[in-house]
Amino acid sequence: IPKLRGRGVNSNKTIETKPIPVYLTEIEAVFDSGADVNPKTLVEKAVISTINGKIPTVKILATGEVTKKLNITNCTFSAQAKAKIEKAGGSVK
Q1: What are the pLDDT digits (tens) for 58-76?
Q2: Rounded to 5 degrees, what are φ and ψ at 84?
Q3: Going along the chain, which residue ranges are E strands?
Q4: b or e along 35-67 (b: 16 or more beta carbons within 10 Å of the residue's beta carbon)?
Q5: pLDDT at res. 48
Q6: Helix, strand or coil for residue 22?
C-alpha cells in the first residue's frame, strides 16, 4: 500500500532548479565600467542571495539599457540582453 501514495504533499512541486532573473538595470546600477560580472560577484554586491548556502544559476534579462562595458561570464542570457551588452562594448561568455 505505501507505494500507491505518490509523492505526498508536495506532489506538484518541481524538482528542477530555475535560474534567478537579473535585469540589466540592476547590473548597470551596481557595477562600474570594465567590471567582471558573474554569479559570485552578484552575491558579493547583494544583487542576488544564496540559496541554502549555494550560489544559484543566473539568467540576465534585457529590461533596461547598458551604457557600461561589462565582462559577463557563467550566466545565461536572453537574446536581447546579449545584443545590448555587446552593443555597449561588453563581452559575453
Answers
A1: 999 999 899 999 999 999 9
A2: -65, -40
A3: 20-23, 36-37, 58-61, 71-72, 76-77, 91-92
A4: bebbbebbbeeebbeeeeeebbebebbbeeebe
A5: 94
A6: strand
